[in-house]
Amino acid sequence: MIACAAGRGGDERVQESGTHSILDMTWVLDDGEEPGFGTLQRVTEAEALARVGVARPTRAHVEALEPLAEQRWFGRYAVLHDEAGAPNELYFWGFSGD
Q: Which region holds residue 10: left if phi is over 0, alpha if psi is between -120 and 50, else beta?
């Protein structure tokens, strides 16, 4: 698990109720760890294959990946690839808050 800088220090109200944004995500999980409050989990190649039929998703696959994050206070991220198959960007999504 990797701690993110967000969520450390700052306004007490924000600490208690969150910002309802990516700033509320404080931990990046390792593969196989259970998701929990304020965590982000990478989309694995196996998940991408099952959802979109390729191990290296592109921006065109984003909508099909979105159902992978359904619980509150939990997010996902995917490494998106360009047309040549090279990593090109990170895409984050999920639910922070109610």
A: left
Starting at the edge strand that comes first in sequence, how are the strands of the sheet with 87-95 ordered?
2-3, 27-28, 39-42, 74-81, 87-95
Per DSSP, the chain holds a count of helices (H) and strands (E) of 3, 5
Taking only the tens place, the pLDDT of each residue in 15-66 is 566 665 666 667 788 888 887 777 888 999 999 999 999 999 999 999 999 9
Question: Which residues are CB-neighbours of 16 under 8 A, at least 6 positions away?
Answer: none
pTM, entire model: 0.73
Are 24 and 37 spatial neighbours (Cβ–Cβ below 8 Å)? no
* Cα–Cα distance for residue pair 43/11, rounded to 1 Å: 32
Check pLDDT > 90 for residue 97.
no
